[in-house]
Amino acid sequence: MDEHLRRVADAFETNTPLPAPSFAASTSDQVREILEAAERSVASVRAEASREASDHVTEVQQATAGMLSKLDELESELGRLLTALRASGERLAQGLEQLQADVAGTAPSPPAADAPAPVTPLSSDDSGARLIALNMALSGSSREETAAYLAEHFELADPDALLDDVYARAGR
Cβ–Cβ contacts within 10 Å for residue 166, how many? Predict the structure, then answer.
């Protein structure tokens, strides 16, 4: 390029017509311009790709942070549920132990062969009836079976309300 400008300046000073540029020189200039344009295009594409990659990484980081936060919430809720379930299990175990003790303590001795069978008074223990009903509901007994058992062994003020509550809690 500098050589061409030198020739133009020399021709201007000597007032001689400019020599026609050679085919090789003009082709060389065109190739150089094409290469420079290609280099600018590559630089632009690289910059755009870098920006898009950076944006994508930021989005993935934000999504990951959101998922981790949700997992923390779920873990906390699961911990609360496990604690409540453990407490319910312990209460149930205590209730069953108490029921077993009550049954063992009040079990009638076998009647003598010639003595009439004693009449066992019905219990009005609402807690015991509730515990037995819950156990029956959880083990698959129908509401009617549970109602019949309670009617036979307990004297309850409102057996239907007790059964409604127990079967609702048992999810049945």
Answer: 23
Closest to 103 (Cα-Cα) out of 88, 118, 125: 125
Helix (H, G, I), strand (E, B) or coil at 154: strand
Q: How many helices (H) and strands (E) does the chain have?
A: 5, 0
Q: What angle do CA 9, 13, 17 make, to 5 degrees?
A: 80
Domain coordinates in residue numbering, the chain? 22-86, 121-172
φ, ψ of residue 154 to 5 degrees: the values are -135, 150
Residues shown for the chain: 172
Q: What is the pLDDT of residues 32-54, one digit of tens each?
A: 889 999 899 899 999 999 999 99
Q: Which two tokens stand for residue 14?
A: 């000597």
- Smallest Cα–Cα separation from 79: which of 89, 71, 91? 71
